[in-house]
Amino acid sequence: MASHAEMAGGVRAMISEADTAAIRRLADRMAEARKADPASTIPVLLGSVHGKDIGLPTSADIGRAVFEQLSERGSADPVSLPVNWRESSDAEVGEAFTAWLRERSAVHRYKVLTPYYRGVPIPLFYRELADLVVASYVTCVLTTSVDSLFEQALDGAGLRRDIDYSVVVPGCSDPISKPAPGAEPPVTVVKLYGDLSRRSLPVGEDEIAEVLQTAKRSIHPQLSGNLIVVGHELTEPPQPIDQWLTVEATGELWWVSPDPNPARLARLQASREVTVLSGEVSRPQEFVGWLFLQLLRLPALEASGLLPRSPDELSPDELEAEFYRGQLARSKAVSHSLRQKRVPGHVEEPLEGRVLYQQLLDADLEARVRTVAAPQVSLGKVREAADLLEELVAQAKDSPQASAVDYLQAQAYAVEREAHAASPDEGVVRGALQAARMVARVSLAGLVSKPVMDQITAAVRDFDERSS
Asked: In this predicted structure, what is the pLDDT of residue 99?
């Protein structure tokens, strides 16, 4: 499961004005595409970079666990395992595990891999992307993931598999996976690297390349036109997908990646127009969330009369506040739904893992909403508080209550630090003022002048009002 820090990525994630403008342009293009042809919108390609954030195991994670089990059972094939796999790097273990899997049948691969995907929570951005699908802003999603998390998100949004959406797995001829005769699902999910639920799991670059080559005619048009790519890494040498992104590519490309390789990205930029989104907005939760905000949440709030002004006139802070309020509302709804699935007296570990994930996400989003929605205290106010506490210490320095004076001095130091901070902590300043006033009243009566006490009382009242 993703850790709290991995989900949060920090307390505040204000995106730059350039990224905000780029997302607005993209949202406008998506709206135009839906209006022009609802059945042919801009496709979205989801890579695997986000896997760690949502708790998906890596090939090295699974490999170490499988190799450990094989060693304990005494059934490990020495030829298939690295000599010192416990001390080997993740890359070496991943390669060894891929080689080991390649020697197994499709059924065996399925049995080995499935347990490691149970209980993985459905990420929030999958749910928001599913809402964009329901609203017809996205009608084709290509993904390199082999799990069924996105399909679960579509199901949760009220779509029916093989009726409202179809799942295409290159190289898979399972007739059960095909829609009913005559049905034409308007939404397509293309699982480029296989599907656990269908036991179609090509392993290794050669197998994947062979499978994708058979589907090149149907996949290439999606990759060569306008396309949104989220969390995909370009490799050297290029994968078939990487090559198709450049060969005969004419459409605009939106590349969303936390750390794109400039040299490899140059291959794409040489053949097509590329808009790169990196930094905070490159995390799938932020990127899809901001698209959701622009395309669905803000129009709904405006139609309901709940916005103070038009979406285009909102300040960056107001936009960010609405972004996190929307994510918090969605996360709390998911948390409630998961809790309703609990059976009294019975603990189901996969379900409890998802409940815990949502609880952590709720807490993080609540902290973000409080941070963004609260008005930022000015440095001038903090400076005034620091000077006021210094004056209080100066008046009380001759008190026989040395411990009280030391305590006041500590409060003054704390506020002085905040006065030099780029983003002062309002809670620290408020707490120091409140504590200083209490000590002055109880332990230093008669030593502190009435004007200073009145000023401290007024400052405490001011910060209390701000916090409420």
From this structure: 78
